[in-house]
Design a protein that fits this description.
Strand content: 15-25%
Strand order of the largest sheet: 1-2
Oligomer: single chain
Helix content: 40-55%
Structural class: alpha+beta
Order of helices and strands: HHEEEEHEEH
Length: about 130
């Protein structure tokens, strides 16, 4: 025979979930959206400045999730310049220009800070 006994209540758990449901994630994502744009812009290699100045972000909200997207609108002849700077590209006379990983190092600290701030907000005691 197995017996279970329970002592206490779920006040702390209920308080945690109630607080978490009231947090305005949009404000946190807007803050980091702007910081991400600044970081990506600062890290983007520039010759003309067009790619550097073309970063923006978008927040997509659904009933179950929030998504933040950083995008670059500098497209020349159908080619997204930020992507070919990142990954490299062939040239018209058969050469190859090596890519430079500038996006990942620029955006990783933003991801880390976003996760830390969101967790701190959820676990904060009022």
């Amino acid at each position: 025979m197995i017996k279970f006994k329970h002592y206490g209540d779920f006040k702390k758990t209920e308080r945690f979930f109630k607080r978490a449901s009231k947090i305005n994630i949009q404000d946190i994502l807007k803050k980091f959206g702007k910081e991400g744009v600044e970081a990506l812009s600062a890290a983007t290699p520039e010759r003309t400045g067009a790619t550097k100045d073309s970063w923006d972000y978008e927040i997509i909200t659904s009933s179950k999730s929030f998504t933040i997207i950083w995008a670059n609108s500098n497209i020349v002849h159908g080619v997204p310049i930020a992507i070919i700077l990142q990954y490299g590209h062939g040239t018209k006379n058969g050469g190859y220009v090596q890519g430079r990983d500038y996006i990942n190092p620029a955006i990783q600290p933003i991801f880390d800070k976003l996760a830390d701030d969101a967790w701190r907000e959820v676990t904060r005691n009022d």
